[in-house]
Amino acid sequence: MSCDTVLKIFYQSCRAVQHMHKQKPPIIHRDLKIENLLISHQGTIKLCDFGSSTTIAHYPDYSWSAQKRSMVEDEITRNTTPAYRTPEMIDLYSNFPINEKQDIWALGCILYLLCFKQHPFEEGAKLQIVNGKYAIPQNDVKYTVYHELIRSMLKVNPEERLSITELVNQLQEIAAARNVNPKSPITEVSD
Fold first, then answer.
1. 189 in a structural domain
2. Which residues form the domain of 135?
């Protein structure tokens, strides 16, 4: 796909997530993945599958019992897709908050997939995810405008990830620099 098509798909997806995160309390989608992005007849992106959405964030700490961690792990297993799980979900003992920043990580995986036609964490390899071990293809020159954005979403520490508003603002800057209306219909779709 062209760089501009990726921009439109991703921007429109992020705007849908931004609407969720702006609610009081924020609504966390929890199952953002490429399969949950649909293209309408008008050529705009529609986010679907809200069955896993929640307003409940978790703040693990050293006082959590093994039973409490196990209950949260079961909930995560039921409501998320392995390849899109965040480091803080896989390793509850990291004691990082499990909140709307999990959607930012998933968006990072989606942008990576849109650019490079593969998932940054193939097979949902837990150790790779926990350590944030992925690689942006070294020979990529087509999507360089997104490299830093991907890195800023796929941070192991959720507190270091961009907020949805920061992400949308950066995408608007990229769109302005490229003279693209990111809200306009998507006309080019590849397999």
1. no
2. 3-178
